[in-house]
Amino acid sequence: AKNPLKVLVTGAAGQIGYALVPMIARGAMLGPDQPVIIHMLDISPAAEALNGVKMELVDASFPLLKGVVATTDVVEACNGVNIAVMVGGFPRKEGMERKDVMSKNVSIYKAQASALEKHAAPDCKVLVVANPANTNALILKEFAPSIPDKNITCLTRLDHNRALGQISEKLNVHVGDVKNVIIWGNHSSTQYPDANHATVNTVNGDKLVPDLVGDDKWLKTEFIATVQQRGAAIIKARKLSSALSAASSACDHIRDWVLGTPKGNWVSMGVYSDGSYGIPAGLIYSFPVTCDKGEWSIVQGLKIDEFSREKMDATAKELMEEKSLAYSCLN
Ligand code: NDP
């Protein structure tokens, strides 16, 4: 039998945390033969609720779950973890300026960077979910210099999956037959969902999505807007955020990163830019990536048209502005 892997979930008493921990305990994140020990961190006001979640995990008798740590102590939470899913963050409340939210979150991520650097397993893989996800991940990376750049990522897989879902509904095909959409850039309303290279597996082989849709306008307008605004649409419908799909796609992100992407498939991940596609190096930017043996690589050589170029640059520009705002909050 495999040794258990330790998975940290911060903000574990929150909505996404509550949806995520049972998925991890069922093997949705690391596979059906990988035992796990779940470390849950939250802040003191949430300690009692966190303990309730721990009680439920015990009650569910998950065969793969070899232990649960529920704590408000960041050192205990980070100790020896192999995977860290950072969901905890300060929510934007009514009347708060962007800068106020940013300031709260960058100081949280700066502190957690130090704890992870000192106490996590040396090869720990980090996924930031809490918003502003790309910039929180960047701050975490910069204040944990001994964690390799390649180990710090942010979640855009939910946006990626939403794009697959929209195409599957438009073309009336199964979502499992659609692949290779791309989310470029920031996990924000400037993200660019790109279906130019996406394909559908049909009885006559793989067909390009733009050819099947045959309506360039839909892909350039409604498709992009629906994916960008899906989170708001769910809040409107449910009066609560999209915690289920956020948790599910966090599992997809880690699973594909650790276990590899299927041959011929890529996925979207927010990763540290190396300057690919002319995106400034030193940003956490969502790219198409393939994963093999626990390492992601950016898919190279895709043809970028003028429409895409503009959208990719606009979301990069927003990330540069967020980065300088984040640094101005730290100073
Ligand atoms: P959620 O669990 O709903 O969301 C957590 C974070 O994920 C938020 O930053 C949220 O951003 C972000 N997020 C990213 N993608 C999505 C998505 N698709 N749908 C919804 N959220 C998304 O928030 P809760 O308030 O329920 O829980 C947060 C937990 O964090 C609480 O338990 C709280 O105690 C804890 N916390 C921890 C702190 C710390 O570690 N120091 C500080 C403050 C809180 P957005 O706000 O934009 O929706």
TrEMBL record:
Keywords: NAD, Oxidoreductase, Tricarboxylic acid cycle. Its EC number is 1.1.1.37. The keyword NAD applies. Substrate binds at R92, R98, N131, R162. Belongs to the LDH/MDH superfamily. MDH type 2 family. This is Malate dehydrogenase. Pfam families: Ldh_1_C (PF02866), Ldh_1_N (PF00056). InterPro entries: L-lactate/malate_DH, Lactate/malate_DH_C, Lactate/malate_DH_N, Lactate_DH/Glyco_Ohase_4_C, Malate_DH_AS, Malate_DH_NAD-dep_euk, Malate_DH_type2, NAD(P)-bd_dom_sf. GO terms for biological process: malate metabolic process; oxaloacetate metabolic process; tricarboxylic acid cycle. It is an enzyme of class 1 (oxidoreductase). The keyword Oxidoreductase applies. Residues 156-324 form the Lactate/malate dehydrogenase C-terminal domain. NAD(+) binds at G11, A12, A13, G14, Q15, I16, G17, D42, N105, V129, A130, N131.
